[in-house]
Write a structure and sequence with these properties.
about 0% helix, mainly beta, flat, two-stranded antiparallel ribbon, about 35% strand
């Protein structure tokens, strides 16, 4: 894993190949291969800091429709 040097990393005209993952312990963004997991973030109970990003709780599995 390597640190990112720009925020826009994918072309809007091509399949997404990379995403930025936030590492809570080190407070850094790292570049990951593939698509970002779908899900949501919930607030951290008893958070001490104002900049607490919350916790990624559930990965949402997206199924494509076959109509």
């Amino acid at each position: 894993m390597k640190n990112i040097n720009k925020l826009i990393i994918n072309s809007p005209y091509e399949e997404l190949l990379q995403y930025c993952e936030y590492i809570r312990d080190t407070r850094e963004l790292v570049l990951q291969e593939g698509r970002r997991p779908a899900g949501y973030v919930v607030a951290t109970l008893r958070a001490q800091g104002f900049d607490d990003p919350g916790l990624f709780k559930v990965e949402i599995i997206i199924k494509t429709s076959t109509y």
